[in-house]
Write a structure and sequence with these properties.
This protein is mainly alpha-helical. It is built from two helices and two strands. The model has no long low-confidence stretch (mean pLDDT 82).
Length: 95
């Protein structure tokens, strides 16, 4: 189900508008997203979500960043070497 909308089912038929049949989705009245109230609500929801985040310890972050940097260098070295070798091989074949 979508935020602000509900699916017609036997549980919520009494709350359903008269023009919506079973299986259809009734849309809630739209609020302007660019209103001050809409922006304030968005910011409040973002703050709530940020409180749910579990950040890794600084030590773990540094180690995983170092692993990523080392792997980037190794893979770039490998791809550069393969490119150089294949370039030389193709040059040798074409001459």
């Amino acid at each position: 189900m979508y935020h602000g909308e509900f699916m017609a089912s036997s549980k919520n038929k009494k709350n359903m508008p008269k023009n919506v049949k079973a299986g259809q989705v009734a849309a809630a009245p739209k609020k302007s997203r660019l209103s001050v109230a809409g922006i304030a609500e968005f910011i409040a929801e973002v703050k709530k979500e940020f409180l749910k985040i579990t950040w890794p310890p600084k030590n773990t972050t540094i180690r995983t960043t170092a692993v990523v940097i080392v792997l980037v260098f190794l893979i770039s070295f490998y791809l550069g070497a393969v490119d150089l070798i294949l370039g030389k091989l193709i040059n040798f074949i074409l001459k």
